Amino acid sequence: MQQYSSLSEQNSQIDPRSTLLVTNQQIRAELWLERSLNQLQNRLNDCLHSALATNQLAAVSEADIFQTVVNELHNALNTTKVAIALIQPKQKTCKVSFVSPSPSRHSQPLLSDVMARTKKLHLRLKKVINIEDLQYLANLQPPVAWQLSGNSGAVIGWLLLATVPLSLTDESSEDTWATLTSQLMSRAAQSCSTAILQLRNIQSLQQRCYTLEGCNQELERINHLKNQFLANTSHEIRTPLSSIIGFTHLLLARGYVPTQERYQEYLNIIQSSGKHLLALINDILDLSKIEANQLEVHFETVNVPTLCQNVLALIKEKAANKGLKLYLDLDPRVTTLVADPLRLKQMLLNLLFNALKFTNQGSVGLQVTTNGLFVHFTVWDTGTGISQEHQAELFKPYFQIAQPATGHYEGTGLGLTVTQKLAELHGGQVEVESEVEKGSYFTIKLPSKQEEQSLIPPSSPLSSSSVPTNFPTSNSNILLVEDDPPNAQMIQTYLEKLGYHVTWVKNAADMWQALKHLHPAVIVMDIYLPDSNDLQLVQQLRKHQHYHMIPVVAQTAMAMKGDRETCIAAGVNDYISKPIDLPLLASIVSKYSKVGHRA
Q: What pLDDT was estimated at residue 369?
């Protein structure tokens, strides 16, 4: 009992106020820690909410996150100096990029003390620190550096505690405050890393949204242009088709016998409408070829005055119908130019037809000048002119301006686009000057000289060393291999009108049968036949001991870059694309048969 009494007396001597004081200190310290972390997290959340709320990329940056962290830790640690050093790409160093405000004069240096055994480390903005030193600081007990992680756990920087306030160095609470400070810095580093990752995710999503929005807008614009193009093209194609079908139907109608003049007039309309339809299709195909880098440009020496006079002759009737005067102004110094004559003619016609379209009174002209390095072809008019807004869109595909007289769109909206691209293929460009209600000036600027290796003599034959050239002479027999009856009938009728004897077969099998009893001067062959494989039929002819010398003229719809070369390589002597230019076909056939003909 005495022992029990003694024990009770000893226990009764313990001061319960001391235990309560320790407990209160711990509670206050833990509350301080949670309050500080909550305050930091709230500030970081505000940054992230701002990033989500804004419609602008980079409205909230990683720098805002880092500066928020050092400021909040500075406030929580009673003016202790805090910093963030970021990894330098491709270097084994970090640079101090964010520092809290200067600490009070009561704070004590910390980093310089703990580094005394290695080197003095004075923390200041833009200070470069070796990563090995930072790892050393992170391994101290307690540490004074904490890693900041980015994507996939990669280290992007370090959170640094540079000073410690005197108020936290009381020996009675030093261990407690050191532990709490370390916990605060460690958890702050985690919160900072998490906020950086969340910000990057937000920015990535925003970037995708902006990209997607931009893509959607571009798709909408393209879709609008496509629909407009299809509508305009449908109208443009149907108009000449209506003339072709309508006048053909009229000529075929029972009981209708037109006069010779009417008959000729209707045929001229049908031919003109067909050519217009072909021009529309060529515009579309030309743009496709150019964009696919498949358009061929054949340079040769062009007689500029002759070409310009021929071009104006083609639009003379249309200008006269509108009561417009035509002018041609040629610089006497410009006599020849190295260019593709067909493409140059196409460019000039595109500009001249546009000038006529938008000019209802006054005149249209073509002026040719030179500055020595370039030849300028300027098409001018006294028409409605073009606004600055429309001038910025002129050379974009499918863009059109309504015709002033009707308010309707005419054409495909590809003429100027093709003209610009053709000029670029020649090493030149197209420029425009225009004023509303005063007229327009479109100038094609082409180099006066082209590289010699690009020149192709205009008379150079399309032949291959593997293709025979010693043809039989004065032979009027032609073998036509064509599976399409209307095309075959057209070619046969035209060539027979010129004095040739034409044998028509529909396929490869019939061709071999015909060759057994016929010795043609020329074989005019469609490349695509139902019973043969592209150009293999030509190759078979070249290998045959009896037929390998017969010239072959390929007539085909193959009209892309390289198609001509492919045909020549297979053994074809010459090449003509569909729709067939009958006078050109007659000229080619005459060259190989040596038989004169009436064009």
A: 95
